[in-house]
Design a protein that fits this description.
This protein is α+β, with helices and mostly antiparallel strands and about 290 residues long. It is about 40% helix and about 20% strand.
């Protein structure tokens, strides 16, 4: 995909439940992953690197792996259980394409994503996680009615953007997103929130929904442990936090529009020498006892 195609790409403002993930991925629009990859942390906040945005849009920054596949399987099982067996399966032996047994299995299940049968990030773990998910009474009011895997398309700063909503809850009138994490405790999950740019993602999602419908929905995160005992918790995301982060989304889209027009995609530090970002506490004299 060429990011310059965004100049002439369609600019619909719509929600759809009919798009497969492959169809969603093919839509010429900026997604949250590219926005996050283009924001680099600075001492005073963030700087924007258009070259990273371009690389992420074009698929240069690869993030596939066992944990991502496991996460996709969990999302499907939690919100679209009827689709799980059609999209995922397991192989009990070693997944080695050089063996005839695995080659035959691939021929029979070519369209499915293949998980391990047991152990870490496996098919069995998905089933156990789903059981824990469904037993959590805090989650049930959010999932009683709604739509899963909804595609949203809108325009920000004349740049087409898109979002793939895990779940839009009709029973609670909210945007709900599932995140798996090694630790879901409040302090640890906040670390994951910052590290993986969840605030940017959810700010974009909320804004896309608002631009399409005119409504600003509250946002909730279902955080699920990605290992036994698969404890889950529902976090309400402060609206003020998303209000702040959506300003970054607009800054990125404005920068993308300028780069599209100029056909230039500089890094955040092209032609500049940048001072090392040293925390204030590191420079305090009390940190180092030179007399010891």
């Amino acid at each position: 995909m060429d990011i310059q195609d965004l100049l002439s790409a369609p600019r619909p403002c719509t929600l759809s439940t009919d798009n497969s993930y492959e169809e969603y991925a093919a839509i010429p629009a900026l997604r949250s992953g590219a926005v996050k990859d283009g924001l680099l942390q600075d001492a005073d906040g963030y700087v924007i690197s258009p070259r990273h945005i371009q690389a992420a849009y074009c698929g240069v920054i690869e993030k596939e792996g066992e944990s991502l596949l496991f996460g996709k399987a969990l999302h499907c099982l939690m919100f679209e259980p009827q689709e799980f067996e059609r999209g995922f399966c397991y192989f009990e032996g070693r997944r080695d394409a050089r063996t005839k047994a695995y080659q035959d299995f691939l021929l029979e299940n070519g369209d499915k994503a293949i998980l391990k049968k047991s152990g870490a990030q496996s098919y069995d773990w998905c089933l156990k996680a789903a059981e824990s998910f469904c037993d959590n009474p805090t989650i049930k009011p959010f999932t009683e009615a709604g739509a899963a895997e909804v595609t949203g398309q809108a325009v920000i700063e004349d740049v087409p953007v898109k979002a793939r909503f895990d779940w839009i809850s009709a029973s609670r009138e909210a945007i709900v997103d599932l995140k798996t994490s090694q630790s879901i405790g409040p302090r640890d999950f906040w670390g994951s929130w910052k590290r993986y740019g969840y605030g940017i993602q959810m700010a974009l999602y909320r804004e896309v929904y608002k631009l399409i419908t005119g409504n600003t929905l509250p946002v909730y995160i279902i955080a699920l442990e990605n290992h036994p005992p698969f404890v889950s918790v529902v976090y309400e995301v402060p609206s003020e936090l998303l209000d702040r982060d959506v300003m970054l989304v607009y800054r990125v889209c404005e920068a993308v529009r300028g780069c599209l027009e100029r056909r230039e995609w500089p890094s955040f530090a092209d032609n500049d020498v940048v001072p090392l970002c040293v925390p204030d506490w590191e420079m305090e004299a009390s940190v180092i006892d030179w007399d010891s």
